[in-house]
Amino acid sequence: MDSFSRGDLVFDVRDSGPADGEPVVLLHGFPQDAGAFDRMAPVLHSAGLRTLAPDQRGYSPRARPAGRSAYALREVVDDVLALLDAAGLSSAHVVGHDWGGIAGWALAAWHPWRVRTLTALSVPHPAAMGQAMVHSDQALRSSYIGLFQLPRVPEGVLLAGGGTVLRRMLTSGGLPADRVEEYVDRMRQPGALTAALNWYRAMPAAGRTPVGTVRVPTLHVWGDGDAFLGRAATEATARFVDAPYALEVLEGVNHWIPELAAERTGELVTAHVRTRSS
C-alpha cells in the first residue's frame, strides 16, 4: 500500500517490512515526513515487524485541506483510523514523534481498542505538558508556539532567505544536515508550510476535547538534551497512564529522536511491541 484515502483526501504512506509482521504505525511531527523514520524502520523490519508510515495531513500534497479547523486533533486521529481501516487492521502498535506523539496519545486515549501499544517519542502526555507550562520552564521552551499560531507571519519568518530561520531552528536541535535540507525543501513547496503550521493554529480548539487517561501499555522515550521539551512534563506523564508504563531517557540526545537515536529507539520499540504481540 503506497496511499490511502479519507473522503477527498489522499495520503501517501510507506508500507514496508514483512507483510505478515506485527503492524507498527509510525507518525511523524513538524516539519518532518515519513522519512523521519528511514533510519529506524529497518531495525523494526529486521525484528519481523511491518511498518506503516504516512505523510500526515498537510504533509501529503493530496491531503492538504485549507483552514486551521481541518487540522484539529480529532481530524488527525481519524486519519490514523482511516489508515488502519485501509490496511485491514483492527489494531496496531503506534509510535509517534513530536506532533505524531500527540496524535498517538489522543488515539490511545480515545480509541484504546485500536492501539496494541503506544510509544511516544519526545512528547509527554498533553495534560502533563499543560501542567509543566505553569510550573516549570516549559513555557519558555515552547514560546515559539505563539509565533507559529499567528496568521501569515511565521511563513514569512521561517522561509525568509530560502528558509534560513527554519534551517537554523532544525540545525540547532541537532538534526542531521541531510534531513534539514530535505525538510526545508518540502516546506518551501506551495502551501506546505501553511498546512504544517495549521496544526499549531488548531491548538486552541483542542482544549475542548481533552486527551484523557491512556489505558494501553505505553513507552515514553525522551532525550535529556531536548531543546523544546523539558524534564518536568516528562516525569509527570506517568500520572496520566493507567496501564503498564515505562520511561526511557536517552542521555545527550536532542529532540529529533527518530533521526538521532534510530537504532536504540528501534530496539526499545521492538521490545515494547513484544510485550503485547497478537
Fill in the CATH topology. Answer: Rossmann fold
- Summed up, the domain count is 1
Low-confidence blocks of residues: none
Instruction: Provide the structure class.
Output: alpha/beta
Quickly give the CATH architecture. Answer: 3-Layer(aba) Sandwich
Cα separation of the termini: 22 Å
**H/E element string?**
EEEHEHEHEHHHHHHHEHEHH
What top-tier CATH class fits best? Alpha Beta
Based on CA atoms alone, the radius of gyration comes out at: 17 Å
The overall pLDDT average reads: 95
**Number of discrete helical segments:** 13
What is the topology, as strand order, of the major beta sheet? 1-2-4-3-5-6-7-8
Helix content: 40-55%
Largest β-sheet summary: 8 strands, mixed
Beta-strand fraction estimate:
15-25%
Shape: globular
Number of strands: 8
CATH superfamily: Alpha/Beta hydrolase fold, catalytic domain
Which key features would you list for this structure?
single chain; 278 residues; alpha/beta; Rossmann fold; 8-stranded mixed beta sheet; 13 helices; 42% helix; globular
Structural commentary:
The chain has 278 residues and is an alpha/beta fold. It has 13 helices and eight strands. It has an eight-stranded mixed beta sheet with strand order 1-2-4-3-5-6-7-8. The chain is globular.
